[in-house]
Structure formats: structure tokens, C-alpha cells
Amino acid sequence: MGSSEERVVAVIMVGGPTKGTRFRPLSLNVPKPLFPLAGQPMVHHPISACRNIPNLVQIYLIGFYEEREFALYVSSISHELRVPVRYLREDKPHGSAGGLYSFRDHIMEESPSHIVLLNCDVCCSFPLEAMLGAHKSYGGIGTMLVIKVSAESASQFGELVADLETKELLHYTEKPETFVSNLINCGVYIFTPEIFSAIEDVFKQRKERANLRRVSSFEALLSATKALPADFVRLDQDILSPLAGKKQLYTFETLDFWEQIKTPGMSLRCSGLYLSQYRHTSPQLLASGDGTKKATITGDVYIHPSAKVHPSAKIGPNVSISANARIGAGVRLISCIILDDVEIMENAVVIHSIVGWKSTIGKWSRVQGEGDYNAKLGITILGEAVDVEDEVVVINSVVLPNKTLTVSVQEEIIL
Amino acid sequence: MKALILVGGFGTRLRPLTLSVPKPLVDFGNKPMILHQIEALKEVGVTEVVLAINYQPEVMLNFLKDFENKLDIKITCSQETEPLGTAGPLALAREKLIDGSGDPFFVLNSDVISEYPFAQLIKFHKSHGGEATIMVTKVDEPSKYGVVVMEEGTGKVERFVEKPKIFVGNKINAGIYLLNPSILDRIQLKPTSIEKEVFPKIADERKLYAMVLPGFWMDIGQPRDYITGLRLYLDSLRKKASVKLASGPHILGNVLIHESAVIGEGCLIGPDVSIGPGCVVEAGVRLSRCTVMRGVRIKKHACISSSIIGWHSTVGQWARVENMTILGEDVHVCDEIYSNGGVVLPHKEIKSSILKPEIVM
């Protein structure tokens, strides 16, 4: 197949509202895929990585949020990338393979030779061009991005075993109880259109099994409460795992960073990872300053052009400031995400926190988290329109939208 | 006659319930909180109710269209663009409240439940000829509130004392007023407090009167008071020998069960329970001092006390839910789980027990 016949379609799974309760309270105001990391919506990072794919013809976002949540973003990003980006809404969750399969007509519309499948809540360098090259040389129906992690953390993910030389996928298990391997599935895949036949086979097998067996009443009770509906097909367990060892699936290892963005704490960490990536890919996005005309900047910092930062403030490392925010004199910001329209008054300090849209932080107040991105109250999160009064201290707490804090709090969730 | 109901803002104290609907639409005794007030107003001849709100008018307006038709009363919203306090909203709704008839208009705080003796209030107001009448209620601990000091026989208000340190009286402002239109000349369109700025002036002019609210009173703006309020409300239904209360061998004390709810065999329900439309309570369930909202399923052998179960939630078999557990909309407590004061946000599944009060997001 010459490159003139090559056409690539990218598909990004974005999920939907009932799935993401772990991302509260931020998800109370914005769909998780649109929450900003390093100044750009979460979904923007995988979309942006797709730019590097030669012969990219279309990008699809598949999820079960309402269309109107994505309408604005999708039209502006299509315009910017000059590649059509469309949001396709599932009527209900079908699992990652089910979702891909239900929109196969759209995906195959441009007769792509390759399909890139990404999960929106994966934070990594998305080495798609190199991965595509590797996939073509392997000649299988799919290639998955893999990474080595510590043995202890591996059990949270899909563990896999790959042939050291051919890189073929030999074995795959999802969240095993005993140790299988410290090589895990990153949630980034490249497929040829044959993947749809593989998914279709699974549907057929399920139908046949359902017809053949006379289900006893006890089994029927079990299946009603335990099993997933017949049209819920998971990519990893139901499709890839059975194909392991059959010379169909291959692996491509990344040595760069990789994280899953499941909680607000992780979004702060991943914002930092993307900011440090900007140093190589888009250094013009990072702020600079030494306290004379512009504020002192240390480490990787993103400041939206419309935000105003007083020159006596010190910002960074790992700070992202969104549109129309106002940072007052003598403010110190370390490891935080400051969302749109926030006002931070003089001499306030914000560390390891996320400050929600339109919130205000009073003079000399201190908003701080411990910095444990995985703990339930490891960073401080202020929801939309939260007002922290002067001199108040907020530590390791989560505050829901539209609250005013008049006294200091620690380790609390405030509804 | 007209009425203004001060609905205000986000109802954050009643979260997680108010994460699903605006506070006035949270059900109390099987109907939206605000409907209790609107029905009582309709009964004394109020033809138009204005809701002073500062957010989510669309959700409110949809519901209100429904009530407008059923009750044959006009309901409109007056939306604040900035918080106007407790008096500012009156200025904002001025055009709607003055109809040239010179009739006084009601102002109610939306969180308050009581017997709403509006006919008596109108009679008293006409008899004293003052400019404003406020209802007051007796409380045990007046220094938590603003106390109204009034003349014994006439009810003429002498002064207001905010959180008094020594005992000056035991009557506090109940949040129900009947005001002459002339009061609107005293209120500017800016954040103003009716208790701190407007009423004291009228009291100085000896034109403010207070009437003691007969019957029960409660501010149900937070879960603990909501549950206490339900007890008082059901008690008042009992006193009126209301047919709405349930009866039978499986009923203890005052219990309200919607006609479309289904109750299984061997249950013991009450005291002080309300069960909403479409609920299914399976066999062997014990419910006491709790509110079960629309569409909830309580599975067999479960035991719930002093809690609020939000719309369309389920409580599993043999689960025990108690001590101010508040389940938001669509929360599913698995079988055999124990919740001691869990406050659970909407759309969650509780798969492990909550041993001490905590918020589950």
C-alpha cells in the first residue's frame, strides 16, 4: 500500500456524565474532557498529537455527553486544525469496543487504511507517528502503546506480556490479582479496519451462545445482576485478550511519561507534565518574566494572554492561569490551576490547588494542598464561584460551588 | 392580593438534594416545598405569587407552569442579578406587587413551614391599621436569632434585638409578613436587610405590629431541621384529623404515604415518615423518622431511620441507613451496607459501609 492510498482516521473516546463521579466537584461544572490542563482542554492534547499523523483525514470524538457540550469546542478546533473534528453521541455506554463498532459507518466513510484509537483521560506524549510506522512494519491488525511501571502499581491496569523481539502481544489480563507483568496497556491503539470484523465476531459468538443455552432461572437471576448487557463490548477484555498470541496484535513501548487522569488531583499532576512537554514542543506557550516588567516566573508556567498578573507576584513551578484571571500584587502561586475569571488579591498564597471559575481569594489568605495527587483530600479544590475571605486558611479541602469561606478549614469537604 | 416569596440562591445547606433541583422544588411531605406556601396563599385569595430568585429560573418556570394551571393562580419570577438581601427583592418586584388596589401583600421566606394562618393575619393587620405586620414564633433559645420585643396586648413592636445576650423576649421573626404597599417607598433597589434596616424604622414610627404564629414553625433549609420539620408537619396533620395520614397495623405514629407507593408485607413504618409517589417498599422493611422521595425502592429487610432518601435511589436488602444519612438523586446503596450519617452526592453506588458521618462525592 503506497502512502497515497493511506488515510488515517483518529477516534477519541471521551466518556460521559454518569461515569465521572471521581472528577467531582470539577465535573459539576464542566465535562471532564473539557477541563483545562496546561491551558488547553484535556481532549485538546490527544487531538493536538494527531496533527503529527501524516494523511490524517478525520477526527471523531465518541462519548455520551450531550452534543451541545462539545459543539463550540469541536467547531473551533476543526477550524484551527483544518481537519474535520466531529462529536458522535452514544445513546448509552457500549464499552470502548461497542462504541467504536456502533459508529463504524462514520469511521469507515473515508475508507481509512488505519484507525487511531485514543482515550481522552490518558496523559502521555502520544508518539503516534512513530507508532504508526511500527504498526505498518508489524503487519498485524492492531498495535497498542505500552509502558513499564512499578510492579506494585501494575495491578491497577491491564497487564500484558510481549515477545521481546517481535513485539507481538502474547498475553493480556485486566487488573489481575497476582503479578503477571509490569508492562501495561496505555489506552492508545492503532488498528486496521479488520478490527471491526473482530468485534463483529464477538457479537456473533454472544448471540449464538445465548440462543444455544437454555438459561436456568438461577442463571437468569445472576445474569440480570452481574453480567453486562450483550451490546457492551470492552476492547481489552473482550477483543484484544482473546487475540493475544495469534500474531494479530503487537506492542509499541513508550519511555516517556504516562498517567491516567481520573481525579482532580491527577489533573493537576498531568497539567504539570504537559507544561514540561511544552518546553520541547511549543516553548512559545510558556511564560517568562523576572519581576521587573512582568511577574517572576519559575519553572513551567502557562498564562492566558487575557490574564493580568502583577509584576510583584511570583508564579511557578507548574502553574496554569486561564482567561481573564487577575493575580494581585505579592501573590505566590505554586503548583496550581487557576481557572477563568478568578481574582487573587494581594499577598495571597496558593499551593497544590485548583481554584474554580470566578472564585476570589482574599488578601493574605492561604489556599493549600499537601500535594498527594492520589489522596482523596490531597490537593485543595475550590469549585465555581467560591469566595475565600481575607486571611483565611484552606488546607486539604474540597469546596463545592457558590460557597463563601469566612473561617479557616482543614481536611474538610464543604457542600 | 399579591405575594412575594423570597427564594434566594443556591440552597447550598440542603445539598446534595439541591444539586438536583432548586431548593423550592425539593419535596417536603410529598410535595415541592414551595407548593405548601402557594396553596395556602391561594386559599386566602392571593391571585399572583412572585418568586424572588437569583438563579435557575428556567427549571423553576417549567414546574411553575404546571402549578399555575392546576391551582389557577399566576406565578412569576423576579430575578436578581446581584444578591439584594431580604428587602431589595421587594423593590425589584415593585411593579408586580402594586396593583392600585391599595391591598397589602404577603412576603414569605421560602424555607419556612408552618400552618400559614393567613386569614387570621389579614384580620389582625386590618384591625390595627399599621403599615406592616410580621408573624413571630416562640423559641426555646432566642439568643440564637433576632428577637422581636413587642407590647403584650396590642402586639405593637417596640424593637428588634439581634442575638441578645440577656433575655429580652422569646419571640423571633418567623419570616412571614403582611405589608402595605407604602412600604415599597422605604426600600431602594440595592442590597438591603428588611430586619435590620426597614422594620426597625417602621417600629420607631409605631407602625409595625407582630402576631404570634399559632401552631408549628420550622426553617427547613438544612437536613436536620428538615427532618424535625417533617415531624411537626405530620403532627399538625394529625391534629386536623387529616385523611392523608396512613393507618393500619404496619403504621406507627404519623405517616404519609402517597397513593401510588407500594408497601410490602411485614413492614413497620413510622413514626414521622413520608413516602413519595411511585416508591416501592419491599417486605420486612422498617422506616422511622425519614423522608423517602419519588421513585425510591427500598429492598427487603432494610432499616432506615433519621435520614432522607433522594429521588430514584435504591436501598439494598438488609441495609441499615441511619443518623442523618442524606442520599442525593439516583444513589444506590448495595445489599447489607451500613450508612451512619453518609451524605452522598447524586449518581453514586455505595458498595462499602460508611461507619462514621462523611461526605461521599
UniProtKB/TrEMBL annotation, chain A:
The Mannose-1-phosphate guanyltransferase C-terminal domain, residue ranges: 297-414
Coiled-coil positions: none
Family matches, as Gene3D superfamilies: Hexapeptide repeat proteins (2.160.10.10), Spore Coat Polysaccharide Biosynthesis Protein SpsA, Chain A (3.90.550.10)
GO molecular function: nucleotidyltransferase activity
InterPro entries given in the database record: GMPPB_C (IPR056729), Mannose-1P_guanyltransferase (IPR050486), NTP_transferase_dom (IPR005835), Nucleotide-diphossugar_trans (IPR029044)
Pfam families noted in UniProt: GMPPB_C, NTP_transferase
Residue intervals of the Nucleotidyl transferase domain: 10-213
Family statement: Belongs to the transferase hexapeptide repeat family.
Record protein name field: Mannose-1-phosphate guanyltransferase
UniProtKB/TrEMBL annotation, chain B:
Pfam family, one: NTP_transferase
Organism this protein belongs to: Rhynchospora pubera
Keywords: GTP-binding, Nucleotide-binding, Nucleotidyltransferase, Transferase
Pathway annotation from the record: Nucleotide-sugar biosynthesis; GDP-alpha-D-mannose biosynthesis; GDP-alpha-D-mannose from alpha-D-mannose 1-phosphate (GTP route): step 1/1
Name this polypeptide is given: mannose-1-phosphate guanylyltransferase
GO biological process: GDP-mannose biosynthetic process
Domain named Nucleotidyl transferase: residues: 2-233
GO MF: GTP binding; mannose-1-phosphate guanylyltransferase (GTP) activity
Domain (Mannose-1-phosphate guanyltransferase C-terminal): residue spans on this chain: 251-360
Protein family according to the UniProt entry: Belongs to the transferase hexapeptide repeat family.
Enzyme class label: transferase
EC number: 2.7.7.13
UniProt KW Nucleotidyltransferase keyword: yes
